[in-house]
User: Which sequence fits this backbone?
């Protein structure tokens, strides 16, 4: 028997979900010695129906990723709002009689959703996975207690988050899933194949933290920084709030290999309520996002336009900060 587990690639919650499900399957469905488990990561490029060739196991499961109507899908767990992007998918799910397909868009992490569901319905003992479940909930729910935790990434779980996000594909995460379901996270970060990969990634992370710190300035509640003179990968969005706990918003201009970008964020630890819909602000410049975080992207040659638009956004947020200050 071949068990195929499809999981959200490059994502701590995706890998942890696969680990929880694998452990459940091993314990409750009694895998035989000759049985095999195959893992495959899925990424959000496009939103069309998932291709049928993914379901090449004797038993197929999807965790932390959108639904598929394919009859070969045996188990499904997801917590995304956008789990049913194609016509007929949601109705197919609602009509399911297998009792093995589950969706909860209010769950902060798919990992905890799976653990809770398997515990309640199938008597699965989740206690040995408590550490993994706890951290998946913090990471996927962005429930970090303070900016230092979210920026320094000193806890083993957060180091694993960093290395997982930087390592999509078949080389690393499938092997890691096997360890996530067996070992304490502090032991996993010091395994040679993990430590070797983590070392340079963590170092690079700390360099970017230093770069942002050296550029960031705060004025009237808004942090601004511009690192578009360099080509960087993703930048941890919490760095400005560790530097300036009194900041309300951040506006940043950056450049990746193919796009220039304005990122707009709000301080999740700021004591008073956010008064802006940042997605709405970004939409005015052709971007989008969520109320608490938004972005606008530009062709890589249009950094100057990104800089000019960022200045406009900074001014608007500062004016509102000023008005709110005068009102109190
Ligand atoms: Mn998730």
Assistant:
């Amino acid at each position: 028997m071949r068990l195929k587990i499809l999981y959200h690639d490059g994502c701590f919650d995706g890998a942890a979900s696969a680990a929880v499900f694998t452990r459940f399957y091993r314990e409750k469905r009694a895998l035989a010695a000759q049985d095999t488990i195959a893992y495959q990561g899925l990424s959000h490029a496009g939103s069309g129906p998932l291709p049928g060739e993914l379901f090449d196991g004797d038993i197929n499961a999807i965790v932390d990723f959108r639904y598929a109507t394919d009859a070969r899908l045996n188990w499904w767990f997801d917590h995304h709002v956008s789990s049913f992007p194609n016509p007929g998918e949601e109705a197919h799910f609602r009509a399911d009689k297998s009792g093995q397909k589950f969706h909860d868009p209010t769950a902060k992490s798919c990992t905890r959703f799976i653990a809770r569901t398997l515990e309640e319905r199938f008597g699965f003992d989740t206690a040995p996975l408590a550490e993994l479940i706890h951290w998946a909930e913090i990471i996927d729910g962005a429930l970090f207690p303070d900016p230092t935790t979210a920026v320094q990434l000193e806890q083993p779980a957060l180091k694993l988050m960093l290395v997982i996000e930087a390592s999509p594909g078949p080389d690393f995460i499938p092997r890691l899933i096997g360890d996530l379901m067996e070992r304490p996270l502090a032991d996993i970060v010091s395994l040679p194949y993990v430590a070797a990969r983590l070392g340079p990634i963590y170092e690079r992370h700390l360099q970017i933290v230093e770069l942002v710190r050296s550029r960031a300035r705060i004025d009237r509640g808004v942090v601004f920084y511009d690192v578009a003179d360099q080509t960087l990968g993703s930048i941890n969005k919490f760095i400005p709030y560790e530097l300036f706990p009194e900041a309300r918003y951040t506006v940043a201009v950056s450049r990746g290999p193919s796009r220039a970008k304005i990122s707009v964020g709000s301080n999740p630890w700021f004591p008073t309520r956010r008064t802006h819909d940042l997605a709405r602000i970004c939409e005015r410049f052709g971007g989008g996002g969520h109320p608490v975080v938004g972005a606008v992207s530009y062709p890589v040659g249009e950094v100057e336009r990104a800089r000019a638009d960022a200045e406009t956004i900074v001014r608007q947020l500062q004016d509102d900060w000023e008005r709110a200050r005068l009102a109190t």
About this structure: The radius of gyration is 22 Å.
